[in-house]
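(Fold this chain)
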Amino acid sequence: MMDYLKQRIQASVPTLFAVSRYLSIRPEGVLEGDLSRAVRPPVMFEGQPGEPALQVSLEVGADIGLLTVTGARGKQAWTLAPDVRGAVVGCPPDDSSAFRSLLLRLLGIRAVAALDRGETPSDVARALTWLVLRQDPRSPLADAWGDGPEKIFRKALGDQTVGNSDQWRGLRRWGRSLGVLIEAQASPSRGRMRVLVDPTCAIRDVLPLLLAPSAAGEWLGRLRTLIPVLGAPALAAEVGIRDGDVPPTLALALRKLDRAGYLSLVTSDDDRDAVTLQVGSEPAQRVAQIRVAAAGVARTALEAGA
């Protein structure tokens, strides 16, 4: 198991994006020293000052299957993993949304693979899965660790996932970068931020991979195979959740995409295979089929290339 919020707190998605773009046109690989000299904008170095941001980002990239490394320490050469090279090459240099979507999928796939081998998934994968499945999307979390998140995480997952303010800050950074969390001010007159679990962007970015219309349960299963932190059964069980209900965070995201024209939620009161979407005390919605709207896919592609 590799934990990203503890020994590798300074690893970041922007660093991985810059590294991946640099390696995408150098298929022969790049020595770590050369990579360090080429990719070192200070603005990418998030977290505690003085930590080797590039090195820990490379380690995380290798762990999730984005990067490969050969050679002895001190003379290591880094390359993009062969099965992701095409996806990275296709990412616009001035828009990281497609890359972030790829990274979210790799993070979840790595977590499920770890479970298959009897290992513990990364702390980021566990924490994001729990938030998606159990946090009320209408009840924001405080940005300050001691104002609520500390009690919530310790009760649900203990100290092994998110255990202090630095790790909470790191999880928020990962969640924002991967399209699962958003942050907003509680009110214009108050400076404190609130953290909302909202995977709408994460789902929108994979719609081109979910074009075939299907029964709602089947469609959601395909979605969770693509993005396991949205509730793949193995990951859900790992964080102590075994019910098969659609969580409110996912229900709200699907409704938002339906209203925005990206999806069509076909309702039915009679279909036994329909799934129930419900957010809080709002009326439940029985959805028999989920269809990706062609116009929505076109908009997704346009936004990714903007």
